[in-house]
Amino acid sequence: MIEINDVSFSYDQTNGMQQLKNIKLNIERGEVVCLAGASGCGKSTLIRLLNGIVPNFFQGNISGMIKVDNKSLFDQSISDISRLYGSVFQNPRTQFFCLNTTSELAFEAENIGMPPTQIIERINQSAERFDLEHLLNRSVFELSGGEQQLIACASVYVTGHRCIILDEPSSNLDIMALKKLKQMLKLWKSEGNTIIIAEHRLHYLLDIADTFVIMDQGHITDKLTNESFKQLTTDDLHQFGLRSTTIEQLQFKSLKNQSQGTLNIEQFQFKYPGQKDLALNIAPIKLNFGTVTAIVGDNGAGKSTFSRCLTGLERKMKAQITIDNQLLRSKDLSQMVFQVFQDVNNQLFTESIEAELRLSNTAITEGQIIKRLRELGISEHIERHPLSLSGGEMQRLAIASALESNRKILIFDEPSSGLDGNNMRKLSVLLNELAQAGHMILVITHDFEFVADCADDIVTMDRGQIIESYVNKRQNIDRLERYFTI
């Protein structure tokens, strides 16, 4: 169906540096292909070439040929290409055209000329099959990142496209949303559709993907069948820059950080204006400086609300918070806290990477900027505009800004989303170095591998309450499995 023959590509703004080099790949009708590899290996660029975003929106130099059903892709308009594929982007907001979810589900189907009665039937069918009825007729801005991604996937199902291209669709999903995504992919596959998916989180694809294509620095280095990929050891995966694919492969943190002081939280309550019920009702808990604490739980458990209260973004919080028996005012606490949010697009403000770091630390030197960016693997992009970076690279830039703020309490909301295995492990090392320097590191995450590798302690939230707190170690793996097994 799809023939990629000797394709090379470089973006205009990269001074001829090639993002794709001599790519050769054939994809059969009905095949499910996973593109995997370290951040910056070329996965997203290849996806953009296939769905026409390159070169129609991102210009550059292309050589080689891509054929779909024996027709050159490069000779077709973006309108024609949109009829060939359904696309799901890493950040669903970048593909939304409507304010209302039901209108969004109908939008692409309307544009390809599907009859209105069929559109309504397909919307109802997708909502029922994927349990999305509660998301219909809602503002897209009311939805969580995971819910927005499910709407983006469902809109592709409504169109009935026989080829679906997805760019890291799981990066912002909790375990429940990931189960729904997996359900969608299995249904698409059972209907004989072709699926091309670029991913870092590979564990949920083990019983779906037929082929795993490994990329590195713009090249395809390996093409493995499903069975061959399952035979890879943990060391093999790490060598490719990939993540663990099973709970059993997890490498748990061996050396635990020691507490360097305690933040005591008591009588912690919060409710949204106009609501009768408490959104948060936290039992007394102690959070340690000098350690990394992972906060886990399903979407809607209250994790992000809890973090917004600590940062001072929610003013109606009631709590008694002390350090060394000294009572903290809300203002005192908020001045100690810096948070990196899940959607970092809204947290990058300047025209350059260098200026972004200077917002957090006006005294930072050129050498310190290079050192910090090198620690996070983005020093080679220092000349680029922050919003031109990939999702994982923007995440690391926001993390760099947090590190330069020198606040005592650093909160990270899904910091490993969009990160490959190597960069996830680098981030784990960096956060633990900060903890050892006396910072309190709080990590809100759905990433089981990151929890195992990085955290000293794990706090589980459900329905606005902390229901358990325990030490991160292999003996507690059954507790992790409850929240990370699909």
TrEMBL record:
Its main location: membrane. This is ATP-binding cassette domain-containing protein. Belongs to the ABC transporter superfamily. It is found in: Cell membrane. It is a peripheral membrane protein. The lineage of its organism: Bacteria, Bacillati, Bacillota, Bacilli, Bacillales. SMART domains: AAA (SM00382). GO terms for cellular component: ATP-binding cassette (ABC) transporter complex.
